[in-house]
Amino acid sequence: MKALISLGNPEPKYRYTRHNTGFLIMDEILKAHKITLLDKFNSFFAKSGDLLYLLPKTYMNLSGNAVIELMNFYKLTNKDILVIYDDATLPFGTFRLKSNGSFGGHNGIKSIINRIGSDVFDRLKVGVGPVPENWKIDDYVLAQFSIEELKQISKMGQIALELVDCWLKKGMSEAQNKFNGKVV
After folding, report:
1. Residue 73 pLDDT
2. Which of 102, 152, 154, 150 has its CA nearest to residue 125?
3. What does the angle CA 105 – CA 144 – CA 123 come to, to the nearest 5 degrees?
4. Active site residue 19
5. How far is Cα 35 from Cα 164, in angstroms, rounded to an integer?
6. For residues 44-54, b (16+ Cβ closer than 10 Å) or e, as one string?
């Protein structure tokens, strides 16, 4: 069993912000597979075969609470999850896969690391940067996408579909080789 976990904030006012990139990418994946979400694990949740989908409703800074609940219930290990989230240090539309590392200033990842007790788990960072000069990073990631950027989300979702399929069937190393640095 594997789990796709995307990070974001559940309130409608955050829907189209850069910090909700994980949710927006997951929306594209769910649409492609015609999957409907339920309310479980303090999250939007679905199970399809051996694949679990989780969009925590705990808000970004407490994402780890929902993740650990899912992992405990399904007896998942750190190697069974792929977390999808925004990264303001990467250029817009750039994909970067990692299997470990620090939280890099991302409070959702920090929460997951703290709750599962490890920084070793697969991650898909989706670029939403760069942060413009004279902007605070918090203001930037909570700002709405431009119309042009929103048009690219669907393309990013299509790439993420292929990436997730590769991760599931061929593993992280193959997915990294094929998709790291990929730009929409």
Report:
1. 98
2. 102
3. 40
4. yes
5. 15
6. bbbeeeebbbb
115 contacts 67 by C-beta, under 8 angstroms: yes
Catalytic hit among 18, 19, 57, 123: 19
Rounded CA separation 155/93 (Å): 9
**Per-domain residue ranges for the chain?**
2-179
pTM: 0.97
Q: What is the mean pLDDT of residues 140-160?
A: 95
Confirm or reject CATH 3.20.20.70 for domain 2-179, answering yes or no.
Answer: no
- Integer Cα distance of 53 and 47 in angstroms: 6
> In angstroms, rounded to a whole number, what is the distance separating the alpha carbons of residues 156 and 168?
18
7 bridge partner residues: none
Q: Tell me the two tokens of residue 119.
A: 């920084």
CA–CA dist 179, 169 (Å, integer): 14
- What distance in Å separates the CA atoms of residue 139 and residue 161, rounded to the nearest whole number? 29
